[in-house]
Amino acid sequence: MIAQARTRPIFRNLLFVLALVALFGGAEANAAVAAEGAPVFANHTEGYACFRIPAVIRTPSGTLLAFAEARRNSCNDFGDVRIVMRRSRDEGKTWGALETVAENGTLQAGNPAPVVDTLDRRYRHGRILLIYCTGDAPEDAVMRGQGTRRIWYRASTDDGATWSQPAEITSGAKLPSWRHYATGPGHALQLAHGPHAGRIVVAANHSEGDPQPQGHDYTAHAFYSDDHGATWHLMPTVPYPGGNESTAAQNRDGDVVMNIRDQSRQSHARVIAIGDAKSFMWNNVFVAHDLPDPVCEGSMIAYGDLLLFSNPGSSTDRRDLTVSVSRDGGHTWPTRTLVAPGDAAYSDIVALKHRQLGILWEKGNAGGIFFMSQPFALLLRGKAEAQ
Q1: What does the alpha-carbon distance between residue 256 and residue 277 come to, in Å, rounded to a whole number?
Q2: Phi-psi region of 50 (alpha: psi -120 to 50; beta: other; left: phi over 0)
Q3: Which residue, 7, 349, 353, 355, shows the most beta carbons closer than 10 Å to its own?
Q4: 22 in a structural domain
Q5: Domain CATH number, residue 131
Q6: CB-hemisphere CA count at 13 Å for 190?
Q7: Torsional sign, CA 100, 101, 106, 108
Q8: Residue 291: C-alpha distances to residues 158, 267, 296, 358 (Å)
Q9: How far apart are CA 379 and CA 356, in angstroms?
Q10: Number of independent structural domains in the chain
Q11: CA dist., res. 309 & res. 316, Å (int)
Q12: Which domain holds residue 52?
């Protein structure tokens, strides 16, 4: 009894010390999470090894829908891959449960390119189109003619709560001679003004013929619908050998601007193609040397008279997520803001309320997918808000 009486205060003190350690250790951990932001799609959760290829849209009701590829067994592009979605009703502060929105059995469904059609009079609250691809073989096999890529969309009129059956649109979006094919990835575009207002434009890329050095068998293109997805048509291919994953926005003049990954690795920068508002012929194609890029995907939106673009801002490595601003319709990009130092890969951006830019991005190729917001006012001055 005497021995027990002597040890109880010591035991209580030890518990107190351990509680303090746990308290302050937990506070430090929580502070780290708050500074970095919690992942929207965390690797090695929900039964998936890896989440990649982010896309995000904001519906007319204010709901954010975040999409990603859920890769079952590894981070490899091909395999048991499906498209999943989470929703946020508070501008990205919290996210709902994971939902599967497109799949292809145990094969591949990916490259999500969602868009909100707000100009279809049949749907007062807008209609979401999720355009995507399916594949039955890895990319290198498809390029050798040993597999195929097909293009589809699903539609939702209730903020993504339910979806229509998949509708295949391969014949309108892809030539039979094309081999590998990818939509976007990242959000698609609906033209807001000009002679083709209401047109849905999907940035894409394809390969044709035998594989060539420096990826010159790849080129970027776009396809469109003028009847809310009922029929689809190809726009001309961008005349730049090596053009790959691409994103599109409409500038203040009504032109469509394509911002393209250079798979040839020759420029270490982005390729810009500007299509005339009436003909959509790519009359101006150039390397944007003020947009360095390590051969990666990027995302672009219009904000008033401006264009904003996100990508890893390094010419050599997938790191340093950067937002760049163009004030002249995509011709030059003088303002660049580092928003997330360190590993960074694919991203998608969206305008939020309160003049904020939402950024859904990969923390490296295999680091999970995170969300942050930044004030437009700071980005336009080349500054970032601490996360």
Answers
A1: 7
A2: beta
A3: 349
A4: no
A5: 2.120.10.10
A6: 21
A7: negative
A8: 38, 10, 12, 20
A9: 10
A10: 1
A11: 18
A12: 37-379
pTM reported for the whole predicted model: 0.90
Distances (CA, A) of 177 to 149, 209, 210, 233, 262: 12, 8, 11, 16, 22
pLDDT, one tens digit for every residue, the chain (387 residues): 323 333 333 333 333 333 333 333 333 233 233 334 679 999 999 999 999 999 999 999 999 999 999 999 999 999 999 999 999 999 999 999 999 999 999 999 999 999 999 999 999 999 999 999 999 999 989 988 899 999 999 999 999 999 999 999 999 999 999 999 999 999 999 999 999 999 999 999 999 988 889 999 999 999 999 999 999 999 999 999 999 999 999 999 999 999 999 999 999 999 999 998 788 899 999 999 999 999 999 999 999 999 999 999 999 999 999 999 999 999 999 999 999 999 999 999 999 999 999 999 999 888 899 999 999 999 999 988 877
Tokens coding 222: 């776009």
Distance CA 347, CA 318 (A): 11
